[in-house]
Model the fold of this input.
Amino acid sequence: MNEADSEEMLLHLFGFGYQKTEVLSEADLVLINTCTIRDHAEHRALSYLGRLAKWKAEKQGRKIIFAGCAAERLGKKVQKRFPQADIVCGAKSLDKFPEILERSSLFKPVNTTENPKENTKKITGQVSIMRGCSCKCAYCIVPYVRGEASSIPPEIVLENCRNKAQNYPEIMLLGQTVNAYNYKGFTFSKLLAEVCKIPEVKRVRFLSPHPVFIKEDFYKVVQDNPKIARHLHLPLQSGSTKVLKDMKRLYTAEEYLQIIKNLKRLDFLISTDIIVGYPTETEEDFKRTLNLVKKCGFSFAYCFKFSPRAGTPAAEIPEISQEIVENRLNILLNEIRECSAVAYKSRIGKTEEILFETKNSGRTSGNLWYRTTTPKAIGSIEQILIKDSNGKILR
Ligand code: SAH
Ligand code: SF4
Done:
């Protein structure tokens, strides 16, 4: 989501005569697009901003924009603590970014007919289809910094997809609860079907779906559209129904497992997000998570230690000891590594559809990595028989 937002801001900056560079010493402007999902993410962004004071002082005219979710959460406090930030633009103000630049008097729009064009073929084109989130997960700051969910009109989404498809064979639809997409009755499943109709689109992915919004019509649209990748990143958070209830996740462990079973019948691989050390998580609850992880057979998982975010209900509950959390995290990470190796090895002997991201490597529809010594065209799709896997890559 942040990458997609950064790209949007970048396009506006092109209109002010800027071009992109990754080399700090060459830059006249640094745009820091921040995350605040956990304290650690915000801390990293702020310490980077702190370090940039020196860079800014080294040459006159250098500017800094501090944007995104941490900017939204901290607001004016950022400039107070870090006067080197010229502009602080919170996540909710993304739509107003060009006006904010114009108003600041630091930036002058230029009349350029030649926007810097992307000349290299990339693989995944990201398209935001909704903003914000209307779920109220008890630990999560997203609804506070990004606001209520709102779906972007399908005409705009599809136009963006058609444009992206000129350069990117794979389209990734983005939203905090991406499958809750609904624009005046135009549902997520309908949108998926329409994106698949774009001839240049070879593969469609989306991030992040929420289990509660998976309905029958989703299974149907998947079966009708082979372009939809057979991979779902479906955040679980906890395998204990009690903790899920405390978290306000709106599904039980059994319901989650049922979805996984339905998806596996359609040959999906599933990855997930899990939070360890939620303040109400007991040893029993954690064991339930481990158990469910085994049953689900995830191909991959992001495991996070619970991070209290000020203003969320979960931050009010006393935390459990870091030592216990650390210990649970390590046990979980080991379990996930094993599951992942099993997922890779389960593909040996199968024919996989590989989308090549380099001449020698690419990803399967199920989102596993593949490598070959026979070079292929970047961006091409090939059906390939998998001969071997070390549990980390297919060959
Ligand atoms: N909208 C997506 C997830 C967005 S946030 C969903 O609900 O599925 C990405 C992940 O960050 C979450 O899935 C969760 O695992 C993690 N996360 C969110 N808030 C957190 C917190 N306070 N502490 C630790 N992890 C958190
Ligand atoms: Fe946060 Fe995702 Fe829950 Fe929304 S659905 S509140 S983004 S964890």
User: Anything to note?
Assistant: Residues 322-345 form the longest helix (24 residues). The longest strand covers residues 269-276. The pocket of S-adenosyl-L-homocysteine (ligand 1) is lined by residues 37-38, 139-140, 142, 176-177, 208, 210, 235, 237, 273, 275, 304, 306-307, 309 (CB under 6 Å). The chain has 13 helices and 17 strands.
